[in-house]
What does this fold into?
Amino acid sequence: MLMKRIFIRHLGLFASTAVCLGCGADQASAPPPPPPFSGQIEIRYASDITPALQNAVTIAAAKWTRALSKNMGDFQLTSSANECFVGEPALNETHHNLLLFVSLLQVDHHGGALAYTAICKLSTRDTLPIVSHIRVDREDLDSVMARGELQGVIMHEMGHALGFNPLSYLPKELAEGTSDDPVFIGALARSEFSKHGAWYTGTTVPLENASNLGLRDPHWRFSVFGDELMSPAIGRGFKSPLSTITLGAFQDLGYTVDFSVADPYEVVPFFGGNRVVPERTLSNDFVRETPPTFVTPQFSR
Ligand SMILES: [Zn+2]
It folds into this structure.
């Protein structure tokens, strides 16, 4: 019994010491810090949904919320039903940060587009999305799940919905170049890219040039990045890692970023033929269903 009591007292002393080292005597009477900011994304479903898709959306929203934070303010949202997309409910509310609708409806034929993202409302303050919509093609959902691509697709689309899109980065002048060589020039993205892409001689971060969208193609260049979350590619065995380069781009866009949330990722050099051609593409998955409208934030918190 003696040994046990001593052991317990020893543990108590250790714990007490640790607390004192953490707070300090001068701070003992200081008010507690405010709670960490939360509520970055609110998800609302605009159609029937499956449990598997709902689970993937929940996991993706939690990961993006760990990675990104920003107090965008409160917004008065007023719109009629179907104003931005078919199935959109009427809105008349004050909403904080991003409101993200997700629907599971037909997009096109089986094997075509897997999903797409559109922006309904942007903030006048920083051109970041305030109301976005992800539409998942129900014709492809079973095969996407069978290939193990669902989480990657949803994480990718949510990246567009949060601001990785030309409506957000072009007004900030974060992209430049030609349609043959569009590049992202944000300082943080470039800094992170330089840690990974030493084999690539560019001093900017290459955007996809395989489309005719030029600076408006919101994807990293697949021939350089390969399997990365914001590359326009997905396939069986793809891990779709969230790299620090993508997180750097989000910091360039104005978010506060926790780089520790990034997944392991290395840019694999592409020297002719060693890049695995994706089985399916996420190209052209950022669309403008209707022109977005602008809303102005009120900062009440
Ligand atoms: Zn995309």
The longest strand covers residues 115-123.
